[in-house]
Amino acid sequence: MISEEQKDELRRHLAGFLIEEEPLALKTAFKIGGAAAFYLQPETLEDLELTLRTLAELELQFVILGGGCNILVADAGIRDQVVIDLGKGFRHLEVVGSDFWSAMLRVECGVHISQLIKLSEVEGYGGLEKLAGIPGTVGGALAMNAGAYDATIYDCLGALQIMEKDGLVWRSASHFKPSYRDGGLAPGQVLIAAYFLLERRAHVEITTEIARIKDLRRQRLPRGAHAGSVFKNPAGDFAGRLLEESGCKGMRCGGAYVSEEHANVIVADKGSRADEVMALMESMQARVCDRHGVNLEPEIKIYS
Ligand SMILES: Cc1cc2nc3c(=O)[nH]c(=O)nc-3n(C[C@H](O)[C@H](O)[C@H](O)COP(=O)(O)OP(=O)(O)OC[C@H]3O[C@@H](n4cnc5c(N)ncnc54)[C@H](O)[C@@H]3O)c2cc1C
User: Fold this and answer.
1) Which one of 46, 128, 196, 287 has the minimum C-beta count within 10 Å?
2) How far apart are CA 250 and CA 1, in angstroms?
3) CA distance 231 to 233
4) Are 224 and 29 in contact (CB under 8 A)?
């Protein structure tokens, strides 16, 4: 709960870029959910530094929003935490150096994975092809350790630039212990930029692989508003397989339903509610637990 006193302090310190009751639905892939009671969109490091310092002083929790592709916002919105949106600013991408064999890229957290893939395709920098088609920002992908087809965003990562409450720090990739769909960031760490070391490869090799991956994804994923896989794969198995065998395809709660194409994807029809997605998730978990004795853990983040 944010107290009246904290609200007044927020308004006083962050007046330049603080918005109250900002709707979030259209900033997420599900396109549902309520508003952020307090929403900040800092576009410079100075503004972000001021934001984090102020929130720490006021002892307020915050949540970072990237592209919103892995987030479900509750119908009542996000009331008790301040939302910091880094999906619009911090979009600089540069090749900091290259030689005959490789190139080092500095990519800010708000850059979309698709932009990074495009650059690697145009310039002939290989290593990230299997991430083609994953929506969202580089910051979100690193926080989630996003990946597909046995590759993850950490595979080509050299170092990260991170903002903590005491300022900006650089850490080598080996400093982190990413695990399945978790980049291993400590609470309060905000990713600012990533340094990727990519290999120079023939254009045709990269373009062909990207086209193959995008095609595979097109065959697997349904249309409509969804956030990709709802549950993490349990060790040694696939959530989709367990859900399908438990008869989850086609299950519905209000406007939210389990895709017929992929049992681990919930599609939210226009007008559906976050509550309905959450209720459906519980029913899916219960069915898998009854049938297979496995407790599925959500991959999507639910914010309220
Ligand atoms: C159609 C579709 C297909 C998908 N396919 C895949 C897939 O194949 N593989 C896969 O791994 N995921 C997949 N996803 C999920 C999603 O695309 C990834 O998790 C993506 O990396 C999320 O990025 P985002 O910018 O949207 O992050 P958000 O959803 O905005 O945030 C995700 C998490 O990252 C945190 N975060 C975001 N930016 C920062 C930052 N700068 N610093 C610190 N924390 C931050 C947020 O607080 C949140 O906890 C899919 C989603 C959709 C909609």
Assistant:
1) 46
2) 38
3) 6
4) no
The two three-digit tokens of residue 193, written as one number: 């930029």
Is residue 254 included in any domain, yes or no? yes
Q: What is the CATH number of the domain that holds 44?
A: 3.30.43.10
pLDDT for residue 88 is more than 90: no
> Do 197 and 266 lie in a common domain?
no
| Cβ-based neighbours of 245, under 8 Å, separated by 6 or more | 291, 292
Please identify which of the residues 22, 129, 229, 259 carries the catalytic annotation: 229
Q: What is the pLDDT of residues 207-256, one digit of tens each?
A: 999 999 999 999 989 999 999 999 999 999 999 999 999 999 999 999 99
Which helix (H) or strand (E) segment holds residue 234: the answer is: none
Residue 274 lies in a domain: yes
Q: Is 299 a catalytic residue?
A: yes
Residues 116-137 pLDDT 10s:
999 999 999 999 999 999 999 9
240 lines ligand 1 (CB under 6 A): no
Find out whether the beta carbon of 133 lies less than 6 Å from any atom of ligand 1.
Answer: no
Task: Please tell me which residue in 121, 129, 181, 259 is annotated as part of the active site.
Answer: 181
- The answer to whether the CB of 140 is under 6 A from ligand 1 is yes
Q: What tokens appear for 189 in the block?
A: 């760490």
